[in-house]
């Protein structure tokens, strides 16, 4: 690891901390690791002496499993921590929790937290490297990286591609990270959803806004369909899920009515029959399972590159 190229940031707290060279380096490294994952022996000793703590203060299935698998494929030692069954439930602070884990000689922390900026806060108070696995409605950088990597794999490049992000933009950390990543890579980005779920600042990010799903789909090359984040909504932003589905749900009839073939993505978990129907999710135009596979390779790349900066 001594001769490898390095990221410009010591942590991965958000896409905003990465430049285009960083993103391209992560993609190049992920491509190499994807080749490893397709070999009979899927393990490399790259992080054999590194200990990583996965600290999840929110429920997670795909992201947590993807990080754990990436760590195992790199031969790292892992410690898994779930807040619900820990001393956090007894009132222990975030810093005390993490410091107790670091006292066990942990080198890196992968953290998901319900509050925006939790990773940034932690990075200022502890010496370990931090990977943000999602902080509130703020950012989810590895999801954006794997989404962009999947688009590049499908089309050869991201630059010049038209990507629409459909759904709950207001509460989605995936949407913000995707916008920042795709814009860095030269894609055109549009958001589509009910007015109540489009944040007022969105225009400052250089994206287009469309409230008509059919128009958005006719414009795009790629449609990234987001889940409605009911757990983050303290008020009702639309009358009913049924009405949302009628206006913004993607089904096979709509897909077949377009004058071109588009690519369909979804960060998961999928609410089948709400934002996307099963016949779309399982269609040949969907790259949802490719996203899952690429997630492991991209997270391997991030962990490997950050570990290369350890003194």
Describe this structure in words.
There is one protein chain. By secondary structure, the chain is an alpha/beta fold. It folds into 2 domains: 142 residues, Rossmann fold (3-Layer(aba) Sandwich); 147 residues, 3-Layer(aba) Sandwich (Rossmann fold). 38% of the residues lie in helices and 14% in strands. It is built from 11 helices and 9 strands. Strands 7-6-5-8-9 form a 5-stranded parallel sheet. A 4-stranded parallel sheet has the order 2-1-3-4. Strand 1, helix 2 and strand 2 form a beta-alpha-beta unit. Helix 1 crosses helix 11, helix 2 packs across helix 11 and helix 5 packs across helix 11.
In short:
This protein is an alpha/beta fold and 311 residues long.
Question: How many individual helices?
Answer: 11
Which consecutive residue ranges, at least 5 long each, have pLDDT under 50?
A: none
What's the domain count?
A: 2
What string gives the helices and strands in order? HEHEHEHEHEHEEHEHHEHH
Give the biggest sheet: 5 strands, parallel
Write down how many β-strands occur, each being a DSSP E stretch of 2 or more residues: 9
Mean pLDDT: 91
- The CATH class of the largest domain is identified as Alpha Beta
Binned, the helix content reads 25-40%
CATH-defined fold name of the largest domain = Rossmann fold
Globally, the shape reads globular
Radius of gyration: 19 Å
Distance between the termini: 12 Å
């Amino acid at each position: 690891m001594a001769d490898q190229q390095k990221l410009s940031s010591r942590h991965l707290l958000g896409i905003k901390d990465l430049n285009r060279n960083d993103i391209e380096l992560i993609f190049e490294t992920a491509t190499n690791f994807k080749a490893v994952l397709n070999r009979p022996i899927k393990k490399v000793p790259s992080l054999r002496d590194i200990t990583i703590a996965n600290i999840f203060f929110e429920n997670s299935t795909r992201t947590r499993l993807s990080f754990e698998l990436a760590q195992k494929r790199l031969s790292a030692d892992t410690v898994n921590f779930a807040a619900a069954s820990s001393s956090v439930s007894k009132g222990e602070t975030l810093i005390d929790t993490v410091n107790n884990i670091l006292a066990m000689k942990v080198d890196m922390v992968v953290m998901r937290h319900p509050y925006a900026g939790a990773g940034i806060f932690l990075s200022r108070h502890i010496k370990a490297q931090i990977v943000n696995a999602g902080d509130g409605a703020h950012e989810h950088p590895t999801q954006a990286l794997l989404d962009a990597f999947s688009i590049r794999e499908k089309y050869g490049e991201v630059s010049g591609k038209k990507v629409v992000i459909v759904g709950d933009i207001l509460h989605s950390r995936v949407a913000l990270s995707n916008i920042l990543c795709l814009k860095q890579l030269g894609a055109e980005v549009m958001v589509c959803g009910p007015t109540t779920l489009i944040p007022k600042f969105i225009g400052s990010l250089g994206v287009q806004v469309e409230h008509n799903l059919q128009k958005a789909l006719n414009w795009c090359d790629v449609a990234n369909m987001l889940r409605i984040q009911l757990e983050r909504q303290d008020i009702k932003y639309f009358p009913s899920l049924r009405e949302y589905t009628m206006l913004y749900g993607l089904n096979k009839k709509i897909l077949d009515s377009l004058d071109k073939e588009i690519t369909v993505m979804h960060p998961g978990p999928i609410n089948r029959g709400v934002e996307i129907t099963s016949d779309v999710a399982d269609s040949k135009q969907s790259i949802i399972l490719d996203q899952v596979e690429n997630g492991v390779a991209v997270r391997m790349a991030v962990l490997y590159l950050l570990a290369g900066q350890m003194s």
